[in-house]
Write a structure and sequence with these properties.
The complex is a heterodimer of chains A (59) and B (784).
Chain A lengths: L13 H23 L3 H9 L11
Chain B lengths: L11 E5 L3 H29 L12 H32 L7 H21 L15 H23 L8 H20 L2 E5 L2 E4 L3 H18 L3 H15 L6 H15 L14 H13 L1 H13 L5 H4 L3 H23 L2 H7 L3 H30 L7 H34 L1 E2 L4 E2 L5 H6 L1 H29 L8 E5 L8 H6 L2 H18 L2 H25 L5 H6 L3 H28 L6 E3 L4 H12 L14 H7 L34 H9 L1 H4 L21 H10 L9 H21 L9 H11 L3 E3 L6 H12 L1
Antiparallel strand pairs in B: 1-6, 2-3, 4-5, 7-8
Helix pairs in contact in B: 1-2, 1-3, 1-17, 2-3, 2-7, 2-14, 3-4, 4-5, 5-6, 5-7, 5-8, 5-22, 6-22, 7-12, 7-14, 8-10, 8-22, 10-12, 12-14, 12-15, 14-15, 14-17, 15-17, 19-20, 23-29, 25-29, 28-29
Classes of the chains: A mainly alpha (59), B mainly alpha (784).
């Protein structure tokens, strides 16, 4: 009943293309959700990390 | 443990950074940059004036081109990124580098590797794989020094006084672990002597591993560390925080995850299995999003500081560098579209692309960083801001001339070499050299553009020298309060949590839904829906705590590194393992390469030594222009015994996959002596030493033994039998040459090279092995 297959897989390797897409999709969604959910205080702290002044900073 | 480990919590300490090693790497990068760019200008001139090869083996294009690429990538950018990583990491984690000794071993070890490369490459000692040319003892040294770097870096993280890991540190972590994996896998070799080895992979396997490595060397050596540098130095120089920290998180994970899959786009329209070409093309297109997300994040960091760009050379270089990153990462996916690739691959368009990346992105980010660092590392104002601004404009004009000329040249080559007439049955430009002649003016322009860029760099050398001369080197410092250490998350905590586990389960279910049929597919589909619902319900129930897993991850380098390795390894394994299995099976498309005779093998090693693969491909693509010009398209089985593969990446000369038997021996004899005698207009160097140097026959038994271990079906033969086979074949070629009016001693290298070239394209037809399903179909056909 191949007509009901969503994707015709002639060689088993072809399924790997689908796996790769799904993996990325899930990773992307989870990271977007996590980054959007980060508290503002944490973000402000992270953003300010490179901005510490040193005595040898010449403006 | 760290020096202040025993101090009570809450006490204040001053930490002095190790900026000495930063200064060392900075100076090394600047000087090796001169070498890399100078060699680049020389080889650009060689493509304009073939006489600049000087008939000297160690000055020919084929030997200097690897010196150019290796010095630009590993010496110039390598030292630059070590300087940037060490400077920014110490400040971001508020800790001195863990070990002075390891820092010095790292610095001097890396410089010794570069010196070894600069000596061995012009001598023709090479593995014959692009950007992986260095011989195996140097490969081992690279791995050792990289491990020293990794230990020093992670040890510093372990001693840090800032719990959070800023996004730049993530990019550095990804660089360290991924480069290690890529480098080790692509350099797996079987030595035949102290200076020679054969890659353990052959044919399509080797091609895929090489470009998995080659593409990701660009990604994880030339891009991710420089992005880390961008995320630290651009906010620092602009005096403003990064535009969107949230975007930087999405940028990091998307980039790291996607990049590793895209390497196979270097092999489009070749014998590479189609599913791999599709994966490479698709993931390359997906790269557009994170790359541009990162670029916009970098540029928008300058919001409110654009007025400074007008006068501050540091910001000028950063703004242009990030813009070039955007241009190069727009062009990369564009070139990975199969139809565009058909035009651009093997042409100068690719040269334009890589140079907008290295000169524009890496070179300008390096210049910006050095102009930023020099006053801080020597505690003195930059000697000349005007000269730095002048450097910027000279460099920019240089890049634009270089890139524009290579665009024009590449598109011209692509169009001319694929053009047909008479309804696509005849080539419009059958003579390859027509495309070479047509692009001459572009070669001159490229050499001029490269010279301008070098001139700008020399201004930087002078400016930094004048800034540092007589000044007192200073080390930065920071005051920190000792805080109580929080309990770590551990590697297990990084994996076994609801978000990550739901992600894994969802991938399994959706794949099952798409790949299976009937009831099984339905069950998998419903399980996928249930997984999503369960994850959403769990998030609603847990509220803020759901995301705590991720926040903890940001403070724990170990599970963070483990997840990064996982993201990278998944892509690598999924691409590489099936191909390794395919090659070992009978999937050779009905033809199998005939193994080289001992003399042909010796000739092949000379071909590799001279870097012929840098100008001549051995891969006829599944394209009309290629097939009309070179013959039937290349099959998987035709290069299975090639260790290393020689498919090439650029056609400065024609493809040689079916060169064997195309011309008589005399043609090759005359061609290698002076190519213009048989091909007027050729820019190929002369190879006079091949007519005087003797073929190394003594090493052949060892080489054949190694080939046998790698799976090449050489029959058992004694040293005497190998010697006799060599002499017999040499005699046949020399006699043929003599009849045609040319004389040469049989033991000269030219005879071996002719033997090799005349073998190219020789294969045997193989009956496909009948599989079980195939036999069933045949039986069914018989019944009906």
């Amino acid at each position: 009943m191949n007509i009901f297959n969503r994707i015709n897989i002639e060689q088993w390797q072809h399924v790997l293309s689908i796996v790769s897409m799904m993996l990325f999709l899930c990773t992307f969604v989870i990271i977007v959700v996590c980054s959007m959910g980060m508290p503002r205080t944490k973000l402000t702290h992270m953003e300010s990390l490179p901005l510490d002044k040193e005595p040898t900073d010449h403006d | 443990m760290h020096d202040h480990a025993r101090l009570p919590v809450g006490s204040k300490v001053t930490i002095e950074f190790n900026d000495g090693v930063v200064r060392q790497f900075l100076i090394a990068s600047i000087l090796w940059g001169v070498v890399g760019m100078l060699v680049g200008v020389v080889i650009a001139l060689q493509l304009s004036f073939w006489q600049m090869n000087f008939n000297l083996p160690w000055l020919t294009f084929g030997r200097l081109r690897p010196l150019h690429t290796n010095s630009a990538i590993f010496a110039f950018v390598g030292n630059m990124l070590f300087a940037g990583i060490y400077y920014s990491t110490q400040r971001l984690v508020k800790a001195r580098l863990a070990s002075n000794v390891l820092s010095q071993i790292h610095f001097w070890g890396w410089q010794m590797i570069i010196v070894a490369a600069a000596i061995t490459l012009p001598l023709g000692l090479t593995r014959g794989k692009e950007y992986a040319e260095l011989i195996w003892p140097i490969n081992i040294a690279v791995v050792v020094i990289w491990v020293v770097f990794a230990v020093n870096f992670f040890w510093t993280l372990a001693r840090r006084n800032e719990p959070s890991l800023y996004v730049a540190i993530w990019f550095y972590i990804a660089t360290i672990v991924t480069v290690a994996v890529l480098y080790i896998v692509n350099h797996l070799s079987f030595p035949t002597s102290w200076v020679h080895s054969y890659s353990i992979f052959g044919g399509v396997q080797d091609a895929l591993v090489e470009w998995w490595y080659g593409h990701n060397a660009v990604a994880f050596f030339l891009t991710t560390p420089v992005l880390g540098i961008m995320y630290y130095f651009v906010p620092k120089a602009a005096g403003r925080p990064v535009y969107s920290y949230r975007l930087s998180i999405v940028h990091f994970w998307s980039l790291v995850f996607i990049y590793i899959w895209a390497g196979s786009h270097h092999l489009l329209n070749t014998a590479l299995p189609n599913w791999l070409q599709s994966v490479g093309e698709l993931f390359s297109l997906m790269l557009w999003a994170p790359s541009w997300g990162g670029m916009l994040n970098g540029l928008l960091t300058l919001r409110g500081a654009w007025h400074k760009v007008r006068t501050d050379p540091v910001l000028k270089f950063f703004a242009a560098g990030v813009t070039f990153y955007g241009m190069a990462t727009f062009e990369g996916p564009l070139l990975a579209i199969k139809s565009v690739n058909a035009l651009a691959h093997y042409s100068d368009w690719i040269i334009a692309h890589v140079h907008s990346g290295t000169l524009g992105w890496n070179g300008f980010m390096a210049a910006g960083m050095f102009y930023y660092l020099a006053p801080r590392l020597w505690n003195r104002k930059l000697h000349s801001t005007a000269a730095a601004n002048m450097h910027f404009w000279i460099g920019l004009v240089g890049i634009l001339l270089y890139v524009a000329s290579m665009w024009v040249s590449g598109i011209t080559q692509g169009l001319m070499l694929s053009a047909t007439r008479d309804n696509g049955t005849v080539l419009a430009y059958p003579n390859f050299v027509d495309a070479v002649t047509a692009t001459k003016a572009m070669m001159y322009t490229r050499a001029f553009g490269g010279t301008l860029y070098l001139a700008g760099w020399l201004m930087l050398v002078w400016n930094v020298w004048k800034t540092a001369k007589g000044a007192e080197p200073v080390n930065g410092s920071v005051e920190v309060f000792i805080e109580e250490k929080k309990p770590g998350m551990g590697v297990v905590g990084g994996f076994f949590n609801v978000p990550v586990m739901s992600c894994v389960l969802l991938v399994i279910c959706i794949t099952g839904w798409a790949a299976m049929s009937g009831v099984a597919s339905g069950i998998a589909g419903w399980l996928a829906i249930l997984t999503v619902m369960a994850a959403i319900m769990h998030k609603e129930f847990m509220g803020q705590k759901w995301g705590e897993w991720y926040e903890k991850l940001l403070e724990n380098s170990l599970p963070f590194t483990a997840l990064t390795i996982l993201a990278v390894l998944v892509g690598g394994m999924v691409e590489l393992i099936p191909t390794i299995i395919i090659n070992q099976a009978e999937n050779i498309e009905g033809v199998r390469q005939i193994p080289y005779t001992p003399l042909e093998l010796a000739g092949r090693d000379i071909y590799v030594r001279e870097g012929c693969y840098l100008c001549h491909s051995q891969m006829i693509r599944t394209l009309v222009g290629d097939v009309l010009r070179y013959g039937d398209y290349s099959k998987l089985g035709e290069s299975i015994y090639d260790h290393p593969f020689q498919w090439g990446s650029k056609r400065i000369g024609p493809d040689l996959a079916r060169e064997g038997g195309k011309y008589p021996n005399l043609w090759h004899f005359n061609h290698m002596q002076n190519p213009r005698d048989v091909t007027p207009g050729s820019i190929m160097p002369n190879y006079p030493w091949l007519y005087t140097d003797k073929t190394n026959v003594e090493i052949l038994p060892r080489k054949i033994d190694v080939m046998r271990k790698l799976g090449v079906p050489y029959p058992a033969a004694t040293e005497e039998e190998i010697q006799a086979a060599v002499e017999s074949q040499e005699k046949g070629i020399v006699d043929d040459l003599k009849k045609a009016g040319a004389t040469v001693e049989p033991d000269r290298e030219i005879v071996a090279v002719i033997a090799y070239i005349q073998k190219l394209g020789k294969s045997e037809k193989v009956q496909p092995k009948q599989t079980e399903s195939g036999m069933k179909t045949a039986a069914a056909n018989n019944v009906h």
